[in-house]
């Protein structure tokens, strides 16, 4: 099949070779022919043929992320304004700015936006800052005092609202339960007109009982304690046995053995004797 | 049975019986009883033993009378307890051969260093005696050489003693003589290992540089005590505690006596009119002598006319204002130069607007020590302000309202449209809707 294709194209090929490269040797001719053949196989469209409307097809668009600068240099901003949205840190927060969780730069003061570099802080980073005066330039001189604003207003101090003792229905908000030999309990009026102690106060009562709910903080500590206790017991028993032996209390102490163990020992002894 | 056995038998039985009658725990119990008795007697009568009168082995319960008598307990409590049961054998008699060999090597090294010091001292004497014209490089070169030689002598002095275990022990017991270079060297090394770093961190994180001074590198250890309690650098101190002036413990690490100025400065005084912060001087004293050996510097004791310029003002913070940074600055004066305290009194009597930078430049001082604490509004502040006539206890600061840049939006929706009197018949549906409106009108923003 391929052979036939080549044989059909041969006159055309020869002509093309003669026009473009008169000096090429005949050995190069064959590859060029192969290229042309490939183009035909892939279906290249010539300019003489009209396109069939594919250019009208829209590209598949996703939802835009709307990244980039949201405020330009010298623009007035208030705290919380978004200055720059980005993926990663193309820009860093400078004077009076902070960076959000998704690297968005926010203003933290009322003022004017400045885009700048600060080689003293970092050689490569670009910063966004907010200054109080539009004429100021960033970065500020390194050892100059920081420019700060109080951002507070003075008010007369609020008087604390007096707490009423009796509810509108004429019964007290709080009563104290006094019981001999027990700590006093403060009961408070609830929405359903019952008197009940606060839950957190009930919780505090545990401390007054002197109960110890947990002797050991961790499981490991408990096991270690048990091990040491057993060791102490064994050591004490040994010492007691020794003392008893010293005081001559009835010569050798016969160790209490279960019947089963005695039988086993006898059997073993019998075997050894054989 | 032999005769002697027969004689001895009742005796043995008697002995055995005695032993068998007594249960084996009784001995231990009796010992415990005796111990208890001893304890009760010692605790009830509080009779200090001779070991308790010795600062090297005093127990915690007998520390206070000893301190009152002017003898500070030595070392840690744990070590003191250990010393009670061990004999303090001098190093020469310790029976460890390798230890004694090592001591011999260290002693030889010390001899070498001492010889070197002598050599350098001879060189210094020769150079001093020489005429500057005969030295190559003239007067300047002679001075440089002398300074270099003296520096090397100081280094050798430290190197001569640095391997001496007794010197190290004395330093760790707090018995070192700070007039000697080796103890100052040890003290500085200890300070640099932690406290200096802490102070440097506070200077950085609280923006003392650049807010108060453009540059500050402490050279002396300054510790702060309020009511005998040590205050960590940067801690928030209750206004009742800081009502009385603190005591400082200042340790300088270079030899000799010098005069210092002491400034306590509040760097965060709110200035509501200008929407800014200003500074205030809380204490100013000058011409305070300091040397490595006297470390205690109680501010309440500085009263002399040629020292105290601005007396202590209790640090207070108004309600709602951000925390105040109270910096304690120690500035070294030029050697042999006394400041004119009367002039200082005139200059800084107003306290407000005090600039440490200009004070430093005007009197040619160098900052050498720093410590700080903080003050906030607390339950005692109002009383302290009333007692000392400080105004401002009746006002509070609230955050300034920041208004949105967006224009107001008219309320939208069916209800919003039908608020007017034309819809009077619908008001029962369109007014007083929870979250939207009340009797006074439309409340929902935007």
Explained architecture:
Chain A has 274 residues and is an alpha+beta fold. Helices cover 32% and strands 17% of the residues of chain A. In chain A, the strands form three sheets. In chain A, strands 1-3-6-5 form a four-stranded antiparallel sheet, with no helix packed on it. In chain A, strands 2-7-8-4 form a four-stranded mixed sheet, with no helix packed on it. A three-stranded antiparallel sheet of chain A has the order 10-11-12. The longest helix of chain A is centred in the C-terminal third of the chain and has 28 residues, at 219-246. Chain A is extended, with a radius of gyration of 48 Å. Chain B is α+β, with helices and mostly antiparallel strands and 446 residues long. Chain B contains 15 helices and twelve strands. Chain B has helices at residues 3-21, 26-45, 63-68, 77-85, 97-129, 138-161, 165-172, 181-193, 195-205, 208-211, 341-348, 356-362, 381-388, 414-417, 427-430, and strands at 221-226, 229-231, 247-251, 258-271, 276-290, 296-298, 308-310, 324-332, 366-375, 395-399, 437-438, 441-442. A five-stranded antiparallel sheet of chain B has the order 7-5-4-8-9. In chain B, strands 2-1-3-6 form a four-stranded antiparallel sheet, with no helix packed on it. Chain A binds chain B through residues 76, 78-79, 81, 110, 142-146, 148-158, 239-240, 243-244, 246-249, and chain B through 16, 19-20, 24, 207, 209-211, 214-215, 270-272, 275-277, 319-321, 394-405. Strand 9 (152-156) of chain A pairs antiparallel with strand 10 (395-399) of chain B, so a sheet runs across the interface. Chain A: One of its GO terms (cellular component) is mitochondrial large ribosomal subunit. Chain A: Residues 257-274 have a biased composition (Basic residues). Chain A: Belongs to the bacterial ribosomal protein bL27 family.
